[in-house]
Amino acid sequence: MVLIMKTLLISVVAVQLIVSSVAVKADDTTEPSYSPYSGEQHPRSPLWGDAHLHTNLSMDAGLANNRLPPEDAYRFARGETVESSLGLSAKLSRPLDWLVIADHTDGMGLIGDIIEGDPVALEFEQAQGWSKALQEGGQAAAEARASLIKTFAKGEIDPELINLYAPGTEKFKSIWEGAIAAAEAYNEPGRFTAMLGYEWTSLIEGNNMHRVVVMRDGPKKALQFEPYTTVPPKGSPDPRDLWKFMSHYEKETGGKMLAIPHNGNLSNGIMFPLAEQWNGRAFDSDYVTQRAKYEPLYEVTQIKGDGEAHPFLSPGDEFADFETWDLANLDGTVAKENAMLAGEYAREALKNGLAIEERLGTNPYKFLITTVSQPA
């Protein structure tokens, strides 16, 4: 990505030098300029940021020993020195221009309460065991992390415990309001943009269907709706229901949303299906138009593997095996098979989208790509 941007910048400079070297007759005012686009005012400065960052509010980040709240994440992104979770001073060599903190909405804030021994959370046997082991450290903590991640991924956390951190509760409301307040505090138009967002964490039998949801709005609109989750009855693991929620939000608030899918390489073939969803529901006009509308971006690369190409699908591409993670689904319960790969990688999706468009009139996989640094 860095090499591409450097090449692009060099190319832009070269074009500017060529343009400036073209002689223009002083008395010839009727002929067009060198380029018919030279007078247009398009944005020309790339703005660097991260569209997928987690804090101590997210289960996976918390279990990876991230103890820093959103406020510290924004400070770090803006170029300030922060003390890391390990106690070391950290500072970016070049501040970011923008940031999306996208904490998981399922169980948002739960891991912090387990680690800190919150009395309400510890009323539940599961939380008691995890909290004790994490406090003990060493092998006990490692086993507790593995147990918590597996239990969370399979949706087997005590329903009453997870519901304490669900939309409609005071806990969830307080956390969401705090996330918005932190974004507003560090948002500085013209210097740094703190975009509001969160992660919708759909797992279908361990198969990854995660989306980062980004809002093009401020607190006035964002506070009208709490984030969507995957836990019924107020949430759902089906992307169709996520898009319905986004549509309802836009209709009621006049705001805008988009969703960014990621890690299709851990979906075991269900991220980019060709004819029907994982549940057997066939594609229809509603599916392809809604997906095309709300998912114009795909996160093609992050810490859990590259999602652009695979050597099985692109045998002639010597770079198709770059950072490939293709052993199994997200929770490691089902091994990967070659037949799954076509529904996992972006390059294949771009081709399959054209075939779907011929059948249904809309290409659901017509997307741009983005890359991030943060695990999902």
Q: What is this structure's SSE topology?
A:
Elements: H1 2-21, E1 49-53, H2 59-63, H3 70-77, E2 82-83, E3 89-90, E4 98-101, H4 110-116, H5 125-136, H6 138-153, H7 159-163, H8 170-186, E5 193-200, E6 203-204, E7 207-208, E8 211-215, H9 219-222, H10 239-253, E9 257-261, H11 285-294, E10 297-302, E11 305-306, H12 346-360, E12 368-371
Parallel strand pairs: 1-4, 4-5, 10-12
Antiparallel strand pairs: 2-3, 5-8, 6-7, 8-9, 10-11
Quick synopsis:
This protein has 376 residues and is of the alpha/beta class. The chain has two domains: 266 residues, Alpha-Beta Barrel (TIM Barrel); 55 residues, no CATH class.
Please give a structural write-up.
This protein folds into two domains: 49-109 and 167-371, TIM Barrel; 110-164, no CATH class. The longest helix is centred in the first third of the chain and has 20 residues, at 2-21. The radius of gyration is 23 Å and the shape is globular. Helices cover 36% and strands 12% of the residues. By secondary structure, it is an alpha/beta fold. The strands form four sheets. The protein has a five-stranded mixed sheet with strand order 1-4-5-8-9, covered by helices on one side. The protein has a three-stranded mixed sheet with strand order 11-10-12, with no helix packed on it.
